[in-house]
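Appendix B. One record, verbatim.
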Amino acid sequence: MRYFNQGSGYRVSFSQRDADNFAKRWPCCTVQGPGWFGFAANGDLVDRGGPFVDADGDDWVAFSQDCQEYGIAQREKRT
């Protein structure tokens, strides 16, 4: 995963490798990469993108939460 500070929020991009690692922990996972999730400063998911991103399934929601937590940790490291 990679973190990008966007001023009023942040973006976390992910690779197919990140998706594969998540899928090992989530049964019947449909998560694929690459893609990204955009979050507001308060952590709310505000946008998503990528050729395979379908954040409506439970697996995608859980993966977006992993990305959110990664972004929060990276933001805290840099402040």
